[in-house]
Design brief:
It is a single chain. With 287 residues, this protein is of the alpha/beta class. It has helices spanning 11-15, 24-35, 53-56, 88-98, 120-123, 130-138, 146-153, 175-183, 207-218, 235-240, 252-255, 269-277; strands at residues 6-9, 39-43, 63-66, 71-74, 79-83, 104-109, 112-116, 141-143, 157-163, 188-191, 198-202, 225-229, 243-246, 260-261. The chain has an 8-stranded mixed beta sheet, with helices on both faces. It has a 6-stranded mixed beta sheet with strand order 8-7-6-9-11-10. The radius of gyration is 18 Å and the shape is globular.
């Protein structure tokens, strides 16, 4: 049997199709590897609460690398196994800057998404697939004063995600100014997670670090892992894994890091990659 003992799977644009659904082909492929003793784990920029628990039921998936590696959870218990949040002295000056911009922002805290109430109008204007917009607009906990809320409750921010709407000329409002501001801060790591968003964590935090941490927890050599992804926030985990797989719909930068390029998220790309690298589990099965 293949030496792969863990497969880290991104959600949006990878395991999810464009309607934020996991196909039966992908679900069947995941069940096959977990039944054979291979760990299938989620590797996402989403918070723990953004994981599609109902869709993953009976797949054997029990671990999730969330918020681009800032927090790792065991799904069956809800236990946070590791958390590496942003420092307060880093977060608050950035929040003050972002609140002056016409953007939608999410602060992922304790596995949940929090957003300033003022951002709701922008959220409804985002040019993203309907299911993703619904997720952004309807699942956030809205607060009037996000910095004050964080200070009062003494909370720690795992990650922040910023989404931008387009003006009449098709330009993403305030995105370039925000990008330059964030990329000039050495205390954070800023990447794009898809649909022209920006996401940032602590500077040394990413999905690759999360993969190595979870591998250590599970007693797995990182050389015996594979990772599948599609956007910039997946590059670190592709570099960290023993085998790097890019989706057919991945960006060119992601494909450049890949050992193998599979099909798209609309054509069971995850299942096809698993079948390619674990053929002994699919000898009587076709995707």
């Amino acid at each position: 049997m293949s030496g792969i003992k863990l497969a880290a799977l991104d959600l949006d644009g990878t395991l999810f199709n464009n309607n934020s659904q996991i196909s039966e082909g992908n679900l069947s492929a995941i069940r096959r590897i977990t039944e054979a003793g291979v760990h299938a784990v989620i590797s996402t920029g989403r918070p723990f609460a953004g994981i599609p628990f109902a869709q993953l039921k009976n797949t054997g998936i029990d671990y999730a690398i969330t918020t681009n590696g800032a927090a790792i959870y065991r799904i069956s218990t809800g236990e946070c196994l590791c958390e590496e949040p942003l420092d307060d002295e880093t977060v608050f000056p950035i929040l003050d800057f972002l609140l002056s911009k016409d953007i939608h922002m999410d602060a992922f805290i304790g596995g949940k998404g929090y957003s300033p109430r003022q951002c709701l109008t922008v959220g409804k204007r985002l040019n993203v697939p309907d299911e993703l917009k619904k997720y952004i607009v309807e699942t956030r906990i809205r607060v009037d004063d996000l910095p004050g809320f964080i200070r009062e409750k003494q909370l720690r921010v795992q990650k922040m995600t910023l989404n931008f709407y387009q003006d009449t000329d098709g330009n993403y409002v305030d995105r370039e100014e925000v990008r330059q501001f964030l990329e000039g801060n050495p205390a954070i790591s800023c990447v794009c997670g898809g649909f022209h968003n920006l996401e940032f964590t602590r500077a040394d935090v990413n999905k690759g670090r999360g993969l190595h941490t979870l591998s250590r927890i599970l007693g797995i050599d990182p050389a015996d892992t594979m990772a599948i992804g599609d956007t910039e926030n997946d590059i670190a985990v592709l570099k960290a894994a023993g085998i790097a797989v890019a989706m057919g719909n991945a960006t060119d930068a992601v494909k450049a890091q890949a050992d193998y390029i599979t099909d798209t998220n609309e054509r069971d790309g995850v299942a096809r990659a698993l079948m390619h690298f674990l053929p002994e589990l699919y000898c009587s099965h076709r995707i």
